[in-house]
Write a structure and sequence with these properties.
The chain is 23% helix and 29% strand. With 303 residues, it is α/β, with parallel strands linked by helices. The strands form 5 sheets. Strands 1, 2, 5, 6, 7, 8 and 19 form a 7-stranded mixed beta sheet that branches. The chain has a 5-stranded parallel beta sheet with strand order 10-17-11-12-13. Strands 14-15-16 form a 3-stranded antiparallel beta sheet, with no helix packed on it. Helix 1 runs parallel beside helix 6 and helix 4 packs parallel to helix 5. The chain is elongated and about 65 Å long. The mean pLDDT is 96. Bound molecules: flavin-adenine dinucleotide.
């Protein structure tokens, strides 16, 4: 029986574990992959206070390191369901069940698919969602990055260290990314832009060879040769396993108050999986700190 089980070891979950363990709670952190979450797929983090620039995996390691000494149990497994039995919650993974008094959901979000022909067939054969993981395989190639937000622009800049050229295709005529990233992209000779346009199809026999693009203003359709396509078109929550608790909005984001409390007493949600405006490492750790503290308060009030 745990005081709190935290599901997901991204920055939100790791910070919740830090705060809960420092309050002397018996804490388990269940993670289905590598601790670090999306930070493991991030080349450079330049907006985490205290570091002018740090790689995502390095920051992940620094956040994970202290947890063991604080007695946080790191368990491997994918959580399939959470059952609410009042004062006790049951957390069910693919092969185990755990009892706990509180649960903190920190499972983040996953990249959204473009949903065009060729995307699934050529996934990992030129289609990628992770420049950090796959960028080095595309040396001296012409690459396409789809999207106009922070992740798209940041990873396009990262890809220029390997690629011959990087073209950003965006459905609007201006980027959504932070100004500092935009300025850097516009100043980079290797980066080109295709505005007001969407990808209609990704083509290739065994690997990506070309991409069909439609201009949404003129409806003109053109085909361009590219060796790789990196897709950054938004996020969807990883929250399916919480369905029985009915704590999600219509798009699947978990609804909380300012204390990270969901509508189920003793169940909290933090980080990207939460309904919120800004999904970043800083906001994830802020959420985690609050939930770790709130779990302690809940347990004190309910004992
Ligand atoms: C390419 C890219 C670049 C980015 N650049 C920046 C940046 O420069 N600065 C910045 O601040 N933010 C950046 N972000 C955003 C930042 O990474 C996220 O906001 C942050 O990681 C969210 O943290 P989280 O803990 O909520 O979720 P995540 O980091 O997504 O972690 C969730 C964890 O939960 C685990 N999990 C999911 N489901 C289950 C389950 N059922 N059972 C067990 N475990 C589960 C996952 O394996 C994962 O490890 C970037 C994101 C991407 C993709």
């Amino acid at each position: 029986m745990y005081d709190t089980i935290i599901i997901g070891a991204g920055p939100a979950g790791m910070t919740a574990a830090l705060y809960a363990a420092r309050s002397n709670l018996k804490v388990a952190l269940i993670e289905g992959g590598l601790p670090g979450g999306q930070m493991n797929n991030t080349s450079d983090i330049e907006n985490y206070p205290g570091y002018a620039n740090i790689s995502g995996p390095e920051l992940a390691e620094k956040m994970f390191e202290p947890l063991e000494n604080l007695g946080v149990e790191h368990l491997y497994g994918f959580v399939k369901n959470i059952e609410n039995h009042g004062d006790v919650k049951k957390v069910i993974t693919d092969n185990e069940e755990f009892g706990t008094r509180t649960v903190i959901v920190a499972t983040g979000s996953k990249h959204r698919l473009l949903g065009v022909p060729g995307e699934e067939e050529l996934n990992s054969r030129g289609v990628s969602y992770c420049a950090v993981c796959d960028g080095a395989f595309f040396r001296d190639q012409d690459l396409l990055v789809v999207g106009g937000g922070d992740s798209a622009v940041e990873e396009a800049i990262f890809l220029t260290q390997f690629a011959k050229t990087v073209t950003i295709v965006h459905r609007r005529d201006e980027l959504r990314a932070q100004k500092v990233l935009q300025d850097r992209a516009f100043a980079n000779d290797k980066i080109n832009f295709i505005w007001d346009s969407v990808v209609k199809e990704i083509k290739g026999e065994n690997r990506v060879e070309s991409v069909v693009i439609e201009n949404v203003k003129t409806n003109q359709v053109t085909e361009h040769a590219f060796g790789g396509v990196f897709i950054y078109v938004g996020l969807d929550p990883v929250s399916d396993f919480t369905k029985d608790l009915q704590i999600q909005d219509e798009s699947g984001w978990i609804v909380t108050d300012d204390h990270m409390k969901t509508s189920v007493a003793g169940v909290f949600a933090v980080g990207d999986v939460r309904q919120k405006d800004l999904r970043q490492v800083t906001t994830a750790v802020g959420d985690g700190a609050i939930a770790g503290q709130e779990a302690y308060k809940y347990i004190t009030e309910h004992s």
